[in-house]
């Protein structure tokens, strides 16, 4: 199974990055957007990724031109799906939005087209039936700035054809990614399964007044050689996301910590992007 | 409060490193050992640390000589304690051994001598009364290869004089350490409070067959920029320690994982030092 004609549903941050890197590696890519305005925004994002890969990957003019040549845009879903080997759904994390697309996909897509979702918060089993082809459906998850943080997490659900993960593994390698094979459904995939509890534990140490963000980060970076400790990572992730993933916790210590994060957000300390979170930035 | 005359009780791996780095920074250090044989072993260790700091810190002959000039050894506990500003207990992690020392310390030490313990597994409150001076006692924890992994975790118990942590902070800086101030007793200090659950979560992902050690490590190193993922860290820590800290867990998933670690140990895969753990080493 080889994927050469690839359609991306949704040209947001991740959708546009996946489309761009696929085109960069000679795949014929069509990005579907809801409106001309959303296509314009996608094109502006692609401009930014072009600049980024010039810096981060030393990409040449020729490579950039080649990527552009392999990219098409459309607002017509039927056109977008026609002849696609692989469709990558990268819509917002909203069940209704995704279900609405899967309904149309079921009607419009070729019967042999493979469908994957880039969802970060849902499990693929939740949508498998809605796609109309659970055997040809799995989750395929990328991290922001995929040319640099180049893991591609490949996670089937129970009805996925057993040959499909290997086909996605090959595709990942073809577009410059390091495939991560996840053998069973795992909420949060691998990265968030490790990162979220790690950040939560650090947050509780701080919230309980056991040690300062700086001292906790120093301990981690010196002890493990990591470039950033948990509080610097949280400043990059942003306080709003940290609040989102903590405030409904059943752990009372984490609930208290979430309220302290809320106080920071209310004071405008929402992380690196606002110039202040646990640390100050210039 | 300034500490210039420092006595180390026990010249094992950490005791000899703390003594050596204190002497390296012009502190007058006495290392107490139980017997002439243990003093000999301590001196052999100090030779190794001298070689290591020549490599890791570019230490000069003059600096090494200066450190040696500041080091004394004795098997006489009364002599060791006489005139000490600061006594650092670095005995094996055995309650009876530590209690036996604290009993003698109570009799022999000057009344104004400060006492700290380098225990990694106990809380200082457990020994505070036994020392006879709970207000002058706290935990002071170093990581192996202290010249490189140079955090010094400073953790008081409820009866510690509130001025004492700051004095240890200053001492830490004087001997080239990054002090980590822990405001309340915390089992495992900071590093193990973060590292142990992190390693446990990774172990469970592997044990449940969700992903391979290599794929999990790739996800972590690419996603966070860390030099090592959890399985490479566990290979360095050693499987025996991993088994020790997991097999009594109340989490059934972790118990299953611990049994798989036991199988590895039984097969001789005890980590980096045996040439194989989760990875093979040459």
- How many E strands of chain A? 8
Biggest interface: chains and residue counts?
A-B, 43 and 43 residues
Q: How far apart are the termini of chain A?
A: 49 Å
Task: Using the alpha-carbon principal axes, give the shape of chain A.
Answer: globular
SSE order of chain A, one letter for each helix or strand: EHEHHEHEHEHEEHEHHHHH
CATH superfamily of the largest domain in chain A: NAD(P)-binding Rossmann-like Domain
Folded structure, characterized:
The structure is a homodimer. Chain A has helices at about 15-25, 35-55, 60-70, 75-80, 95-110, 125-130, 165-175, 190-205, 215-225, 230-235, 240-245, 250-265; strands at about 5-10, 30, 70-75, 85-90, 115, 135-140, 150-155, 180. Chain A is of the alpha/beta class. Chain A has two domains: about 5-180, NAD(P)-binding Rossmann-like Domain (Rossmann fold), CATH 3.40.50; about 195-275, N-(1-d-carboxylethyl)-l-norvaline Dehydrogenase, domain 2 (Orthogonal Bundle), CATH 1.10.1040.10. An eight-stranded mixed β-sheet of chain A has the order 3-2-1-4-5-6-7-8. In chain A, helix 1 crosses helix 3 (about 60-70) and helix 10 crosses helix 11. The longest helix of chain A is centred in the N-terminal third of the chain and has 21 residues, at about 35-55. Chain A is globular, with a radius of gyration of 20 Å. Chain A starts with a strand and ends in a 16-residue tail after the last helix. The model of chain A has no long low-confidence stretch (mean pLDDT about 95).
């Amino acid at each position: 199974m080889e994927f050469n004609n690839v359609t991306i549903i949704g040209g947001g941050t991740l959708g546009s990055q996946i489309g761009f890197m696929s085109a960069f590696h000679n795949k014929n890519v069509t990005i579907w957007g809801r409106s001309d305005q959303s296509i314009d925004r996608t094109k502006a994002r692609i401009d930014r990724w072009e600049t980024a890969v010039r810096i981060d990957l030393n990409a040449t003019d020729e490579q950039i031109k080649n990527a552009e040549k392999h990219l098409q845009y459309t607002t017509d879903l039927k056109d977008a799906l026609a002849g696609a080997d692989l469709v990558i759904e990268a819509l917002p994390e909203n069940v209704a939005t995704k279900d609405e697309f899967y309904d149309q996909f079921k009607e419009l897509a070729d019967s042999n087209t493979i469908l994957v979702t880039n969802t970060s918060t849902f499990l693929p089993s939740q949508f498998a039936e809605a796609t109309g082809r659970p055997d040809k459906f799995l989750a395929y998850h990328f991290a922001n700035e995929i040319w640099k943080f180049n893991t591609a997490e490949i996670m089937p659900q129970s009805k996925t054809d057993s040959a499909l993960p290997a086909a996605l593994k090959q595709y990942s390698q073809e577009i410059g990614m390091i495939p991560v094979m996840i053998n069973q459904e795992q909420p949060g995939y691998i990265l968030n399964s490790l990162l979220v509890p790690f950040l939560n534990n650090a947050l509780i140490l701080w919230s309980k007044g056991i040690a300062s963000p700086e001292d906790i980060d120093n301990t981690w970076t010196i002890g493990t050689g990591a470039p950033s400790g948990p509080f610097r990572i949280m400043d990059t992730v942003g306080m709003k996301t940290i609040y989102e993933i903590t405030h409904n916790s059943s752990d009372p210590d984490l609930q208290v910590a979430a309220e302290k994060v809320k106080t920071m957000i209310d004071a405008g300390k929402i992380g690196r992007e606002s110039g202040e979170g646990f640390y100050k930035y210039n």
